[in-house]
Amino acid sequence: YTEAWDADKKSIHVMPDTPDILLAKANSANISKKLYVQAWEEAKKKGYDMRADAIPIKTAKASRDIASDYKYKETHEKEKGHYVGCPSAKEDPRLALAARAMALQSDRLYKKAYNDSKTQIHIPVDAMAVQAAKECQTLVSDIDYRQYLHQWTCLPDQNDVIHARQAYDLQSDNVYKSDLEWLRGIGWLTEGSVDVVKAKKAQELLNDRLYRTRPEQLKFTSITDSPDVVLAKTNAMQLSDV
């Protein structure tokens, strides 16, 4: 069956100028890393010539000088000790400005006037604010709000007292359960109770042995000349490799 195919495989020859071969070669050239960096490698072999007065070199030197800490502080170091025209530090405008800014930022000087004047306040005892505070304190005071009444004395045979006792007895848990005291100590068997019967019925429903019948317990004899058996035998013979 496969002899013709094996012989045909050996006689196949693809021409080198077919569209598929040309497309594969073009794709190989496009994704080739060697061809991709070939121009760069040839440019590196030629070397480079960068003069000292080139624009990129001058730009780099200028950026370095700007960023240099020494160049940044060079003017300040030269101006140290050359202040002229100020006989004292108080007359120097820069020092005076710095002292003024420090005084404005000082928290102690900012609160000095307040600390000096807060102990000199005198409030009269009959001021409106004081009277309003006293009235508010009286309203929220627990002592004035609660006024305990005197102890009442009730007779035991009054109708309201008898009614209250009956209501207490109805609400009492001991009185509510007093009719069950005679059940204490009496034995009881669970056989025949509702829960036991319900559990037995559930067990019968879930019993796999009663629910299913095993195949080996069924009496069955296959007929050898039935159409489906004959068809199965014929198909087995047709599909047999032997």
TrEMBL record:
Species the sequence originates in: Melanocharis versteri
GO molecular function: actin filament binding
Gene: Neb_5
Keyword terms, alphabetized: Actin-binding, Repeat
GO biological process: cardiac muscle thin filament assembly
GO cellular component terms given for this protein: Z disc
PANTHER family in the cross-refs: NEBULIN
Protein's name according to its UniProt entry: NEBU protein
Keyword check for Signal: no
